């Protein structure tokens, strides 16, 4: 007889693992900030970088291709700072299971929030995000803006980790939507006349070259980008704001909403994405250690006849 599964797809054993994981993370998250980021994070850094050598080969290859003008010593310094930042992200994930709205507002300060609110009004809009800084902290926007804040995500293969990440992302007001169900959810909100903010992390590597995915030169290499951001912005007349982030100290950031499309300008979907890619590269070059170099951004290679924008 097959094991009985709940509506979230987990069987009884997976449920036990989920609650154990969540409980341990909540307990660790109650530790003081100094303990989390000045004691636990360095320990994680030591094991990730010096013991496990977690994706060091991928990181070095990415940095060498992205910054051929830099010396090996300069790239090594970026690499070292990146792994320290990555260790803080590991702690952030734990901490997000118990962080309070007040604490999160201290961690992610939106410098031009009042100006942005006046500008966007009651319009639907797109938040153009990236794996930079601490992207999960975008949940801070949902705290004081309790309409439909849709965060697009790729479901994880592990049912336990998938449920864990969904809990972490939704507990402060975000609504997570699987990528392949996004169009239906957007249409539902539009049909109901409900205001929404659509958060898209657009720096993942697209799976394959299709008519919807365009090749662009990004950090000195041809890269394939999903075209969803430009598609939804143009189809529904949604302005697009790039989230420009900087780090003040471990796990404390400032950010600004920078408009890259106003929702009415007569430009193509491709131009909307071009502007996103340009802003992203500019931000990465300013503080490269804050970007997620350990993911295989350039794993898909262009065919010989590819058109690269």
Task: Furnish the topology, listing elements before pairings.
Blueprint: H1 12-29, H2 33-51, H3 56-66, H4 72-95, H5 101-107, E1 108-110, H6 113-120, E2 125-129, H7 140-143, E3 148-153, H8 159-170, E4 175-178, H9 182-192, E5 196-201, E6 214-218, E7 221-225, H10 228-236, E8 240-249, E9 252-261, H11 269-286
Helix pairs in contact: 1-8, 2-4, 3-4, 10-11
What does this structure look like?
- By secondary structure, the chain is α/β, with parallel strands linked by helices.
- The protein has one domain (12-290).
- The chain has 11 helices and 9 strands.
- The chain has a 7-stranded mixed β-sheet, with helices on both faces. The protein has a two-stranded antiparallel sheet with strand order 6-7.
- Helix 1 (12-29) crosses helix 8.
- It starts with 11 loop residues before the first helix and ends in a 23-residue tail after the last helix.
Please count the helical segments: 11
The overall strand count is: 9
How do the SSEs run, as a string of H and E?
HHHHHEHEHEHEHEEEHEEH
The 3D shape can be described as globular
Q: If you compute it from the alpha carbons, what radius of gyration comes out, rounded to the nearest whole angstrom?
A: 20 Å
Strand content: 15-25%
Low-confidence stretches: 1-5
Spatial sequence of strands, sheet with the most strands? 1-9-8-2-5-3-4
Give the termini distance in whole angstroms: 55 Å
Described by strand count, sense and barrel closure, the largest sheet is: 7 strands, mixed
Q: Structural class, please?
A: alpha/beta
Helix content: 40-55%
Q: Number of domains in the coordinates?
A: 1
Mean pLDDT: 92
């Amino acid at each position: 007889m097959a094991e009985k599964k709940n509506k979230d797809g987990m069987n009884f054993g997976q449920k036990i693992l989920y609650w154990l994981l969540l409980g341990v993370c909540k307990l660790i998250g109650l530790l003081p900030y100094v303990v989390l980021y000045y004691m636990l994070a360095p320990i994680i850094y030591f094991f990730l970088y010096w013991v496990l050598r977690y994706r060091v080969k991928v990181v070095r290859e990415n940095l060498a291709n992205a910054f051929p003008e830099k010396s090996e010593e300069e790239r090594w310094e970026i690499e070292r700072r990146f792994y320290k930042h990555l260790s803080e992200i590991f702690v952030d994930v734990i901490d997000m299971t118990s962080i309070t709205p007040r604490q999160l507002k201290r961690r992610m300060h939106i410098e031009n929030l009042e100006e942005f609110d006046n500008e966007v009004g009651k319009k639907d809009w797109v938040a153009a995000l990236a794996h930079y800084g601490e992207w999960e902290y975008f949940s801070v926007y949902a705290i004081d803006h309790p309409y439909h804040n849709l965060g697009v995500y790729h479901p994880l293969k592990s049912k336990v980790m998938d449920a864990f990440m969904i809990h972490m992302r939704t507990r402060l007001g975000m609504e997570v939507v699987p990528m392949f169900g996004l169009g239906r959810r957007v249409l539902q909100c539009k049909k109901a006349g409900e205001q929404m903010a659509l958060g898209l992390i657009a720096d993942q590597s697209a799976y394959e070259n299709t008519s919807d995915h365009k090749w662009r030169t990004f950090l000195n290499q041809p890269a394939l980008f999903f075209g969803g951001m430009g598609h939804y912005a143009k189809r529904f007349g949604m302005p697009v704001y790039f989230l420009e982030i900087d780090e003040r100290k471990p796990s404390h950031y400032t950010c600004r909403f920078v408009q890259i499309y106003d929702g009415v300008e007569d430009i193509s979907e491709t131009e909307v994405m071009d502007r996103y890619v340009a802003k992203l590269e500019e931000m990465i070059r300013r503080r490269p250690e804050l970007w997620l170099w350990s993911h295989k951004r350039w794993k898909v290679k262009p065919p010989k006849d590819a058109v690269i924008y």
